[in-house]
Amino acid sequence: MQQNSIKELFKKNNALLNGHFKLSSGLHSDTYFQSALILQHPKEAAYLAEELTKKIKENNIKVDVVVSPAMGGVIIGHEMGRALNVRAIFTERVDDKVSLRRGFSVKEGEKVLVVEDVITTGLSTKEVIDSLKFFGVEIVAVVSLVDRSAGKVDFGVPRFSLLSLEVKSYKEEDCHMCKDGGIAVKPGSRK
Ligand code: ZN
């Protein structure tokens, strides 16, 4: 699957937006990924998971369990679990601490595939990895639908994504779109 056709699929579903956005980090960017808008279609979600699964299989990576962070990673993680025929569980953030809840567990030595929807700075992915290392699991790879860092973020394990591109983000005072008189909008928020 070509990166360009994945991009078109995102655009078609309004999951890739161009404009002037204020990200949750507070930074401004001209590009925003709202992967929920593509993942709301189960067929598309399954298709994207199958494309990611090909990369895992091509590289002979064995997986016992898929772990993804809630909320963004849950749907694609679940579809990856289906495509790989392994269980799919998720971490949650409560009181600023990321952990497995709801009786989910991983066993020592289990091979864990971490699945994200969008990786930007990689900080939240690192928190997921750290929360699992405690159990003595082996993190075999990190996959994401979108990698906004174009592969720059390093987790010390193999990484795969369907759409890898460097998307610049700016501090408000350095934002050229603000300098041109534009106003940044928070994606997903109601007017
Ligand atoms: Zn701006």
Overall pLDDT level = 93
CATH top level assignment: Alpha Beta
Query: How are strands sequenced across the largest beta sheet?
Result: 5-4-3-6-7-8
The parts where pLDDT drops under 50 for at least 5 residues are none
In total, how many beta strands? Answer: 9
**What would you report as the Rg, rounded to the nearest angstrom?**
17 Å
Structure explained in plain terms:
The protein has 191 residues and is an alpha/beta fold. The protein has one domain: Rossmann fold (3-Layer(aba) Sandwich). It contains six helices and nine strands; from the N terminus they run αββααβαβββαβββα. The chain has helices spanning 3-12, 36-39, 42-58, 74-84, 123-133, 176-179; strands at 16-22, 28-33, 65-69, 87-94, 97-100, 111-119, 138-147, 159-164, 169-170. The strands form two sheets. The protein has a six-stranded mixed sheet with strand order 5-4-3-6-7-8. It has a three-stranded antiparallel sheet with strand order 1-2-9. It is globular, with a radius of gyration of 17 Å. The model has no long low-confidence stretch (mean pLDDT 93).
Spell out the key features of this protein.
191 residues; alpha/beta; Rossmann fold; six-stranded mixed β-sheet; three-stranded antiparallel β-sheet; 9 strands; 30% helix; binds zinc ion
What topology emerges from the helices and strands here?
Layout: H1 3-12, E1 16-22, E2 28-33, H2 36-39, H3 42-58, E3 65-69, H4 74-84, E4 87-94, E5 97-100, E6 111-119, H5 123-133, E7 138-147, E8 159-164, E9 169-170, H6 176-179
Parallel strand pairs: 3-4, 3-6, 6-7, 7-8
Antiparallel strand pairs: 1-2, 2-9, 4-5
Helix pairs in contact: 3-4
Bound molecules: zinc ion.
Zinc ion binds next to helix 6.
